[in-house]
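Input for the complex:
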Amino acid sequence: MTSDVMELDGVSVRYKSRKSFFRHDYFSALEDVSFTIKKGETLGIIGTNGCGKSTLLKVLANIYGVDGGKVTWHCRQVSLLALALGFDAELSGRDNAVISGMFLGGRKKEVLEKLDEIIEFSELEEFIDKPIKTYSNGMRARLGFSVAVNMHSELLLIDEVMGVGDGKFRRKAENAMINKISSNQTVVLVSHAMEQVKKLCDRVLWLDAGKVKMLGDTELILHEYNQFLKQH
Amino acid sequence: MFISKAHLVEVFFTKLVLNLKSEASKTYLSYIWWLLEPALMVAVFYLVFAIFLARGTPDFIIFLVCGKIPFLWFSKSISNASRSIVVGRGLINQVSIPMPFFPLLVVFQDAFKQTIVFAFMFTFFAIYGLEISWVWLSVIFIILTQLLLISAMSLLVAAITPFLPDFKYLIGTALLALMFGSGIFYSYKDVLLPQHQQLFLMNPVANLLKNYRQVLMENTQPDWTALVVICLASVALITAMTLYYRKAGTVYARLVAQ
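Predicted:
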């Protein structure tokens, strides 16, 4: 039995954009990307802007199909951690929390059981039955974060979502997320915050122009990456 | 990525209920619009054709309701479904979800509203004094046939629009042409030459409207052969579209994101 939750073998993804009526331009976002994700590990993905990090996360989440290569999932549930997933401004915070939790992989019963915890974490008890169109951006983000951090997935994919809200809530959110990542949860974390990557990740994958530049020990790769950033 | 089909079905029906709730909360008259909108459409058609153009026959209002109400269901569902994948781009880019989820959500939302409209339509017919008989039960099969046809066509148009954004303009024109070509405010038997009538009835919407009238106004059995043919063709299209979405479903996330 394999301890890998996912394998990528020579994966490539390209975007098509229309130039004129019949002519298209192609842009290669990922090229020949191969690696595996091991059960229980936290894999960091680093790279400069536009190197393909977000595209890679979407491939891992089975949101994007691939144009070449193969992705094999050995787990049944992968969630891309998204705030305010499926939120509808006309509906109450409670209704939105339920549907968002379900989109993040929870069964209805499970989300309803966790609802009190979610509401308490968000500190929105007074407003939870009001439509979220009456919420401020910060309040929406708090609710979205509270749902996301309370849902469980076999493989959790995180794209720079480390904390939301202001002062006290931000620290609480960051701590909750760090606790989640540090647990036995398998996580793929895309981040520009090198200190966080160093602290949380067991291995790091460095993407450069859609290709795997390096993969392996966190300290070594972060050192090489920092050298690269100084030179460029 | 959903754990199981049961989970997906649960999400589908929860989202369906919440969408209906959300839609109703956007207006002052809320759920009343589900009935008021088709009633107003029928009223406008009645005013134009029965009064201004003096085309009214004794039971013209019933004739019009039998045609306009099912047609509105068809046209609104197709129009909404054609935009469903593009409208759902926020979700599509954040969660792995089978593409038929979006057009079918629209189809079921509209079907739910239509159930209430039909209930009022039958009540209106009863109050109007139409003779109610056991034959009326066969209207259930006509409604289910129409639901199958709407589902099949919705899956098709939803698949095309993200590739060809211009298609949304054609849909509007096609639905308008369909409205004129389905015999909503005229009887095809009075207007068309006998040799053209079979051709007219090859339009499945026109055929369904004929069957609604046959059952509700004339108290006669529907054309079962035609209904079975429409059902089979719809099931074949649904199967083909399901296979297509299974093969090409993940293309849409990139397509609607760009």
